[in-house]
Give the backbone structure.
Amino acid sequence: MSSLTELKFAVDRPIGWRFFVTANEKCRAGLNAVARIVRVRRNRALLDELPDYLLRDIGISRLEIRLATSFGRQYSDQTGI
């Protein structure tokens, strides 16, 4: 909650409503985590199917596929690619 009016809005609600909102946020976070895991596994499988010359064009080796799919852009920032 970034502003005072949003804070007042949350405090003015009954506890049942606050519990519902919190549970909803937790469920959404869990679904986002599952979606990320599925996306990483799918990308990893797609990269595993590529031949070595295409992986070199992308800028990664076969050994780096796991890191590149897990960390994404953070991985390329660390390696200088």
Q: What stands out?
A: The mean pLDDT is 80. The CA atoms of residues 71 and 77 lie 10 Å apart. Helices lie at 4-12, 15-49, 52-58, 65-71, 73-79.
